[in-house]
Amino acid sequence: MSGRRWPLFSLMAFGYAFLYVPIGLLIIYSFNESRLVTVWSGWSVKWYGELFRNDQILEAAGLSLRIAAVTASLAVVIGTVAGLVLARFGRFRGRTLFTGMITAPLVMPEVITGLSLLLLFVALEQAIGWPGGRSATTITIAHVTFATAYVAVVIQSRLVGLDESIEEAAMDLGARPLKIFFVITLPIISPALVAGWLLAFTLSLDDLVIASFVSGPGSTTLPMVVFSSVRLGVTPEINALATVIVALVTTGIVTAGILLHRQDRRRQHDMQAAAAAGGRAADLARV
Amino acid sequence: MTDTALPAASGAVQPNRRQTKLEPWQDPGEAPYVRIEGVSKTFGAFTAVDDVSLSIYRGELFSLLGGSGCGKTTLLRMLAGFEQPTAGHIYIDGVDMSEIPPYERPVNMMFQSYALFPHMTVEQNVAFGLHQDRVPGAEIRHRVTEALELVKLAPQRKRKPHQLSGGQRQRVALARSLVKRPKLLLLDEPLAALDRKLREETQFELVNIQEQVGITFVMVTHDQEEAMTMSSRIAVMDAGWIVQVGTPAEIYEYPQSRFVAEFIGQVNLFGGRVVEDAADHVVVAADAAGTEIEVSHAGSVPIGTRVHVAVRPEKMAIAKDPPADPRNAVQGTVDEIAYLGNASIYLIRLADGSMVRVTAPNVTRMTELPITWEDAVHVTWPAFAGVILQT
Question: Could you tell me the domains of chain B?
């Protein structure tokens, strides 16, 4: 480390410390023996045991995962259609309005989204008797509403980057528009679909505010359980839960990173090999 | 074209096809295979293609040549069906294409970007079009193999597009568009993405493949050399109009306008006024060059008409001694010499400051150039060399 670099280095160290020291502390304290979160009294894994015996937390976690999975799947379907319309249908009447309406949930304060959805569900119930009280269904509908906006943006940006002549070539070779979408467009943008699904899944899993508005008795999501129990005082059990979540997320990200890196390296290797082979073929052709 | 044909030296023209019989466009009994009738295309206030009519015959390699924005690609996309003409009709093999969507036209296109399907292998890319037509599996395999052998890509059939070099990708695109045996194959700048060396080889390969499969090709290009070496006929386009249609030799030797003369190859233009209009020749008094120019093959042009005379640099001769006949001769000093090996290009500055370009073949082996910088020289040309341009 040269003398000139140390201010930069210390700034970076401070930045990382700011991000990761709290998480590190949380993980350490999840192994605390004491019932008091802030008092250290020795190592123990007993709170993990408590966690896995806590039906309320496990049920909430299961519900959250189910809602997140359904939300992500629905949001990908609707968001893909919306992204396709934005990227491929050129200019049509009301395009600006449509774009604005698609992206509005991105900037709308969650409190407002939650409140307005609650009002909608109440009004719907009075008018047509559906959705019959607040439940996991209403949470899912609410989550799909805002997750779709994110997915649409992801898909749209991928489609804009896709060479349109690929779809034209498929049409030229005799494929009808619907077939082109399923056989050509969807496979090519599949990485964006996966990214959109994961994004929607995370958003849904994370959400506290909107879920609080539209949930009913018996449909308590994990963030709601954590938040309400923390209000009564943080328990080491919550620390253990947080540690489990951090471990899962880290594993997921690291695995995805390694897979992407490998794929990238293989692709680059292929391309170099192809370029070299092409050069040799050209040499042979000339001889 | 024979297999032993060598790439033409830059600027030189070679006849593309041996004249064994009457060419289809000369034969009044031959019906055009593709008819474009009064086709226009406007995008808002912009007119991309303006009342174009063309006849293309079976087995031709027809080029649409022009600069960017001249409407050549729009015309090609209308043949493919990706754009609908604002006015006019397109007939392919006698069938009006107006109501036929791209996926039902007997036309295939090779895209400038190749547009290969990145998630499919070479084989799957080529087979795609046949699958759409529900061709039986055994026949698909047979025809895909045939097409891949034609473009010499059989060993790479299991590769994905990103595992191929640029030239190989270009050949996959060609095989994919040929395998359906379309009535018409459209090529959008087929060689633009290749490097120079590969481009020259591929020009001849494409012509050979076209003659083997016998499919009518319509090619769009901005490269006049490419159009000259490959085409049976060329349509030169400018600002949505067809400026001239003809064989490469006709376009080069008998341009009908200053635009065509200047767009194809190098040319010297002399402005002047017609002073004599005889049965077998026309004489033009050049304004600036201070000479009279005789053009032997011109049609009748009324005396007094303002015209330009175009003379190709390789049809001019350069000498230090004054010529016997003062006609078809100008005088100047050598300003620049470019030695190309097989020929030298001389830039001669005339008394009025204008430049004349002369290409002289280097027939003798010279260690020292007989004509050098700042020499006073005479440039002469025969009466058949000039072309009279009224526009």
Answer: 24-106+182-260 (3.40.50.300), 266-389 (2.40.50.140)
Domain coordinates of chain A in residue numbers?
48-246
Q: What is the DSSP letter of B341?
A: S
Arithmetic mean of pLDDT over chain B: 86
Give pTM, 2 decimals.
Answer: 0.80
Q: How many beta-carbon contacts under 8 Å exist across A and B?
A: 90
Q: With CB atoms and an 8 Å threshold, state whether A267 touches B113.
A: no
- Residue A237, pLDDT score: 85
Instruction: For residue B385, report the phi and psi dihedrals to the nearest 5 degrees.
Output: -75, -30
Q: Is the pLDDT of residue B77 over 90?
A: yes
Q: Quick one: pLDDT band at residue B369, thresholds 50, 70, 90?
A: low
Residue B97: CB atoms within 10 A of its CB come to: 24
CATH number of this structure's domain A48-246, picked from the four choices 1.20.1330.10, 2.60.40.10, 3.30.300.30, 1.10.3720.10: 1.10.3720.10
* Contacting residues for B41 by C-beta, under 8 A, at least 6 apart: B47, B48, B49, B71, B74, B75, B78, B83, B85, B86
Interface residues of B toward A, Cβ cutoff 8 Å, are 80, 82, 101-104, 107-109, 111-113, 115-119, 128-129, 132-133, 159-160, 162-168, 176-177, 180, 197-198, 201
